[in-house]
Amino acid sequence: MFIDEIKIFARAGHGGRGCVAFHREKFIPKGGPSGGNGGRGASVILQADHDLNNLIAQYFNPRLMAADGGHGLGKGCDGAAGKDLVIKVPCGTMVWQLESTGSQFPTHTGDEEAETEVVPSSFSGRPIVKAAANARAVEIDLSKDTAADHAGRKPVPKGELVADLTTDGQQFVLCQGGRGGLGNRNFATARRQTPRFAQPGEPGAESEFRLELRLMAEVGLVGYPNAGKSTLLAAISRARPKIAPYPFTTLHPQIGILEYPDFHRITVCDVPGLIEGAHRNVGLGHAFLRHIERCKILVLLVDMAGTDGRTPWDDHAQLLQELALYDEALAAKPRLVVANKMDEPAAAVNLKKFKRRVPKTPVLPISAAFGEGMDKFLRTIRKAVEAAPAT
């Protein structure tokens, strides 16, 4: 199963609440406040990994829930911080935030006295309410900040790109964990020596995201169905895509590695066949066109024998039109026109007609099924990739 787009929900861990406690031991019956601080909530982190090639792990686990921080304890013991949840995704993953659903601070649910006192908040400088109770009390932030504000970043508008993970090991904090609340020992002053309140932990950020994979390849194979793209990929690399004499044999992108004698490597991406109207999402449409957006060069593979009843020059024109209608940047990429199936009797005649109808366009004739012209093709591809500008 190949998954290149998935919607997920992520929630970071909440910070632990601070503790209300007082020091008690032999010969010290009335010690000072000793409530510990709450632990930091765990964050949800995405990490790019070049060993992965699709998002199937997130398909089976679309809800990413990080651990909460531990609550503070007596005797000055702080709560344990939550362990960050690191999710590995393929290189080339783009992260789009769909919705920001930051929650507010939790309210105290215990028995509270009617009398309250307003004191400054150590979190944000805004007023808070001190609610006194018999056993403990909590500090409630009256501000309306979202979890994203607490994390030091503004909420992202719906559908906005927030990250593009392209390098192996690159990380992005998807949702920031909430800070732990302060224990009552932090609020002791000369005038208030026995504070009976503490802070609750901050809530962790949460939101919905769309992960979209755009494969990282240097060369993209583009052509009509049954043009021989999978056959070419199998001939130049160790990739073994399904090969059959009918259209749309390839239903998802395939990656192959070209290896040269001097250990130089080039990554090639074979996408499903392009048909008329692909820019309008006809056929597989956008489901695979985005995978060639990162390629340095494009190889337009043309069936020069016209085995499916189409003419090669019309195929070439239609391919360029579909690329331009989908994205002008794709049509502007460096490209190489390769004439495949030159072993067929009609291919030689069609090649002459193609050169007359499409002048000033270099054409490289090959036969992927029989390995003809592969050496020149590999040399040409390497020179084109080295000369292409960085994407």
Can you describe this structure?
By secondary structure, the chain is α/β, with parallel strands linked by helices. The protein folds into two domains: 5-213, Spo0b-associated Gtp-binding Protein, Chain: A, CATH 2.70.210; 219-387, 3-Layer(aba) Sandwich (Rossmann fold). The chain has eight helices and 17 strands. A six-stranded mixed sheet has the order 13-14-12-15-16-17, sandwiched between helices. Strands 3-1-11-5-9 form a five-stranded mixed sheet, with no helix packed on it. Strands 4-2-10 form a three-stranded mixed sheet, with no helix packed on it. A hairpin with a 7-residue loop joins strand 7 and strand 8 (139-141). The longest helix has 15 residues, at 312-326. Mean pLDDT is 79; it is low at 102-158.
What secondary-structure arrangement, pairings included, does this model have?
Blueprint lengths: L4 E7 L32 E6 L6 H5 L2 E3 L19 E6 L2 E8 L15 E5 L6 E5 L7 E3 L5 H4 L9 E6 L5 E5 L30 E8 L5 E5 L5 H8 L17 E6 L5 E6 L15 H4 L7 E7 L8 H15 L1 H4 L3 E6 L4 H13 L5 E3 L8 H14 L4
Parallel strand pairs: 1-3, 2-4, 12-14, 12-15, 15-16, 16-17
Antiparallel strand pairs: 1-11, 2-10, 5-9, 5-11, 6-7, 7-8, 13-14
Annotation keywords:
2 domains; single chain; Spo0b-associated Gtp-binding Protein, Chain: A; 6-stranded mixed β-sheet; alpha/beta; 5-stranded mixed β-sheet; Rossmann fold; rod-shaped; 17 strands; 391 residues
